[in-house]
Amino acid sequence: MTPPLVSIVIPNYNLGRFAGEAIASALAQTHPAVEVIVVDDGSTDDSLARIRAVPGVQDGRVLLVEQANGGVARARNAGAARARGEYLVFLDADDLLEPTYVARCLEALGAAGPSVAYAYTRMRYFGAAEGIYRSKPFRRWRLIIGNYVNASALVRRDVFLEAGGWDPGLTGHEDHALWVALLECGWDGVFVPEPLLRYRRHPEGSRNTLTRARLREFHADVAIRHPRLFWLHLLLHPGRGRAAAERLRQARARADGR
Questions:
Q1: Tell me, what's the pLDDT at 247?
Q2: Nearest to residue 88, comparing CAs of 182, 184, 152?
Q3: Cβ contact 11:41 at 8 Å
Q4: DSSP state of 27
């Protein structure tokens, strides 16, 4: 039986000093059918020179795509558009995959039910901080109110396209928005309880770090996009209804004012 092709998309913006390690970890997968696509999102540092010198890029095993700066969502979508794989993995240029990442995610998907479209693993921090992120087993109601699925989950390409891909209108927490969009389409995830994704912590923090107020706004915006899931959440947690409804009203007012 021919193993399914998995496309690993690596978006890069000014992270060329780390990109070689990310590419090497993608090429080192034990799964025998992997293609690697690097999308440089208009870097202004020496990223392109560094990436072109990486083994794999030089010999044609890695496809390098260059585009004007448009944000990480557009870079990921550009890589997905070039992908030939049945499955997609999105790996940030400063993160790493353990060698068995793809194989274990595919095994988990194969053992899951027909409504499961993606698999995610635990994350191990390294760099400015070390530790293991407390990922959680998949629960629909829990995903509605907060994200616990990392952006590098292995996802079926057809389902990813069905949900519309990464939202370029967001500048943070695009992964949560994608998993909620998949949820509304009827697709679930499956958890692999092994730390197979290595997430680099930087001293300056993450671009996904939001204030509590901004995070509430983000959740309200998600509710506007997916009202059916929002009302399901209120039915499951009626005690939170008044505050959540007020955040939704404020988010709608902001949307009407744009």
A1: 52
A2: 152
A3: yes
A4: H
